[in-house]
Write a structure and sequence with these properties.
About 20% of the residues lie in helices and about 25% in strands. It has one domain: 4-Layer Sandwich (Metallo-beta-lactamase, Chain A), CATH 3.60.15. The longest helix is centred in the C-terminal third of the chain and has 15 residues.
Length: about 325
């Protein structure tokens, strides 16, 4: 069985665990945003959880929680339904995570997603309450950015690729993970360059174009094996080229499903986002995902669930997908 150890008492079936080390928290004084109804005692923890899948040790880090409009995050689902799962503040904002997954097997260090980053304008930082905490989270976990061998972006929206790059002291854009090979779908870069009215604002060229230009980013054309036990597979709908990241080792399987199912509150087939470019395809792709993830007991890693970064999904008595308790050690 997959060994899932939540050190933070993440709840929702993931159980409690050891006390947090002070280095895993950022000071409340750093966060000027007023208290949100979804915040709780462990909300400020930089390490969101740990698990193991075969030989891979998995650590979930955060770039800090942020806010988006609840209606946009749940599309056509009425607020009286979604607010039971995701409480909103007075401005209808819900609290979301920016989960970066670090995988280590003693030979390689592989990173999935890089959060929002620190390159937003002041206006956008204030809108999203972006916190730019991923470097602090890596430090809290004792993982040096220089030790990272590979970085995989599920897609290139700004909240998934922000720390791909950073500015040095002279203002030049450089790779945050200088020794890593980056991977993204070619179609994501092409869509970012198109700057379409519908989704152009979601792409920030500074997050990927310098890596493409330098040759540090490998552009993929569909499914691919990135390394032994690590492969990507397309699950379109949110974007045409959104890729899930599969982690397979020792007969166990985990999957970072990204924005196909952004949080554990979005498990129902029709509970998509207003941000999805093709909502009907999202439904069909969720069916395809569940057809394997549920009977094969995959560990599902969520990209935007701050308090429940992973768990196993099962069908309930009414035939609906629900999160079940993971094995906690």
């Amino acid at each position: 069985m997959t060994d899932v150890r939540s050190e933070l008492g993440l709840g929702d079936g993931l159980g409690g665990g050891a006390a947090r080390h002070p280095s895993e928290l950022h000071s409340a004084e750093q966060d000027s945003v007023k208290h949100h109804p979804a915040e709780r005692a462990d909300t400020d923890a930089l390490i969101r959880g740990r698990a193991s899948v075969g030989d891979f040790e998995i650590t979930v880090l955060t770039d800090g929680f942020f806010y988006l409009d609840g209606g946009a995050m749940f599309g056509v689902i009425p607020k009286p339904l979604w607010r039971k799962r995701a409480p909103a503040d007075a401005e209808n904002h819900i609290l979301l995570g920016t989960n970066t997954v670090v995988m280590r097997d003693g030979k390689r260090t592989i990173v999935i997603e890089t959060g929002i980053g620190d390159k937003l304008s002041e206006k956008l930082r204030n809108i999203y309450a972006a916190k730019a905490l991923l470097p602090a989270a890596f430090e809290a976990a004792g993982i040096a950015p220089e030790s990272v061998d590979m970085v995989i972006n599920s897609h290139l929206h700004f909240d998934h690729s922000g720390w791909n790059t950073r500015r040095d002291g002279a203002g030049k854009l450089t790779a945050t993970f200088p020794n890593a090979r980056y991977f993204a779908q070619r179609g994501e870069v092409e869509d970012g360059r198109r700057q379409r009215e519908r989704d152009g604002v979601s792409y920030m060229a500074d997050n990927y174009e310098p890596l493409v230009a330098s040759g540090q980013m490998t552009l993929l054309d569909g499914a691919a094996e990135i390394a032994p036990g690590i492969r990507v597979e397309l699950f379109p709908g949110h974007t045409p080229q959104l890729q899930a990241i599969h982690i397979e080792s020792g007969g166990e399987h985990a999957c970072y499903i990204s924005d196909l199912i952004p949080t554990s509150a979005h498990l129902d087939l029709t509970w998509g986002m207003g941000y999805d470019l093709d909502p009907l395809t999202v439904i069909e792709q969720r069916k395809r995902f569940y057809a394997h993830a549920i009977p094969e007991q995959w560990l599902v890693l969520f990209t935007h669930d701050h308090h429940t970064p992973f768990g196993h999904v099962e069908w309930n008595e009414r035939g609906r997908p629900v999160l079940r308790a993971a094995n906690v050690k």
